[in-house]
Amino acid sequence: MKFDTKLLHSGFNPKEHNMSINVPIYPTTAFDFGSVQRGADLFDLKCEGDIYTRLSNPTNNILEKRIAELEGGVGALSFSSGQAATTAAILNITSCNQEIVASSTLYGGTCNLFSSTFKKLGINVRFSKTDEIEDFEKLINDKTRCIFIELLSNPALNIIDIEKLAQLAHNNNIPLIVDNTIPTPYLCNPIEWGADIVVHSTTKYLSGHGNAMGGIIVDSGKFDWEKAGKFPELTKPDESYHGIVYSETFKESAYIVKARAQLIRDLGSCPSPFNSYLTISGLETLSLRMQKHCESALKVAKYLNNNKYISWVNYPMLEDNKYYKLAKKYTPRGCSSIVGFGLVGGAKAGVKFIEALKIPIFTTNIGDTRSIITYPYITTHRQLNETQMKACGIGDDTMRFSVGLEDIDDIIEDLDNAIRESQK
Ligand SMILES: *Cc1c(COP(=O)(O)O)cnc(C)c1O
């Protein structure tokens, strides 16, 4: 099946669900084992089936199969949020006194997780100062267990050359994990470029309607854990399952099976089947939504680029953008919905601008059907001092606009009016 057909049909057969055309919600905590033998086999991971919704649930399973197919992976595991998915993706292969290497341009929540909670767990994260592959290379040592980056990072929108970074990771026998939340599988499949694990906050574009939190990990199945020789948790007996060896029993699905059997079992960050249902429903229109998000964002970026009260515009599909070439390579169909820009007049103009806007919602989310304006100086980054803000690339003029699916003429008219008001 091609991409758009998968969006609607992957992982679901109505014949297995009372001929329901929509994916049913299974609001149940537990599942009847049917027989003593089957109960025992389920607990020995000898047969497939649902035991308890913390481990798996038919609605969640369909979402997992669908997104695994859209990303080109062998399996997926869904979570209650993107944060929970990122946490598990790393904890699945990294322990106390080990390290990971990450890009420094990451979603704020991921930065906090890495520099605060992981630190407490004894996992040291080394952040690369630049996007250059050599800078990542310098940070890798014997303790490193993975490289973690975002593609079209939130909100800097930089693009790291993932093909080269995957090569670097593999030369060092470690996997590359890519947060693909902003491109979505519609714009890029990181696995095709060598990424081993993909994570998403499904809260954003995948569910797409601002109504369901969620996260997911997709396993490419391509990383050779045994050959790497650094991941005994995957290649040596797991005593909590009678000495099962994931890489032997589950072969290319070892990573994702272990994440379910151990981590979501122990951490409990499973999604509600209702949220998975909403995500599956939203996902059906991913292609149509992403096409319009990209088209409208480019129009907004071009409009802003020609406005004398806008001092800079950041959208990688603009030809003068630093990442234009990499955007053409990795996300040729567009760069998603987020446009960053600087408004002349600093905080004073910024406040007037936000107050004059009529259409976009003033909040911190992205990837909603509705346009969203974020003013980090006043909200997400207000606890930082000037120096810290500068390091994050945030100034009192910085705006982030997630362009929604409204009529583009209305969006531009609203922006034009608010920019004029801001300068009065
Ligand atoms: C929002 C976001 C996350 C975190 O996801 P939640 O669902 O909010 O927990 C992770 N990565 C990126 C790129 C995001 O935009």
Give the SSE layout.
Layout: H1 3-9, H2 36-43, H3 58-71, E1 75-79, H4 82-91, E2 99-103, H5 108-120, E3 124-128, H6 133-139, E4 144-150, H7 162-171, E5 176-179, H8 184-187, E6 197-201, E7 215-219, H9 225-228, H10 232-235, H11 246-249, H12 254-267, H13 273-283, H14 286-305, E8 310-314, H15 324-330, E9 338-343, H16 346-356, E10 361-362, E11 372-374, H17 386-391, E12 398-402, H18 408-422
Parallel strand pairs: 2-3, 2-4, 4-5, 5-6, 10-11
Antiparallel strand pairs: 1-7, 6-7, 8-9, 9-12, 11-12
Bound molecules: pyridoxal-5'-phosphate.
Short description:
40% of the residues lie in helices and 13% in strands. It is of the alpha/beta class. The longest helix has 20 residues, at 286-305.
Can you tell me about this structure?
The chain is an alpha/beta fold. The protein has two domains: 3-282, Aspartate Aminotransferase, domain 2, CATH 3.40.640; 287-422, Aspartate Aminotransferase, domain 1, CATH 3.90.1150. The protein has 18 helices and twelve strands. The protein has helices spanning 3-9, 36-43, 58-71, 82-91, 108-120, 133-139, 162-171, 184-187, 225-228, 232-235, 246-249, 254-267, 273-283, 286-305, 324-330, 346-356, 386-391, 408-422; strands at 75-79, 99-103, 124-128, 144-150, 176-179, 197-201, 215-219, 310-314, 338-343, 361-362, 372-374, 398-402. A seven-stranded mixed beta sheet has the order 1-7-6-5-4-2-3, with helices on both faces. The chain has a five-stranded mixed beta sheet with strand order 8-9-12-11-10. The structure holds pyridoxal-5'-phosphate. Pyridoxal-5'-phosphate (PLP) is lined by residues 81-83, 107, 109-110, 150, 154, 179, 181-182, 201, 203-204, 213, 215.
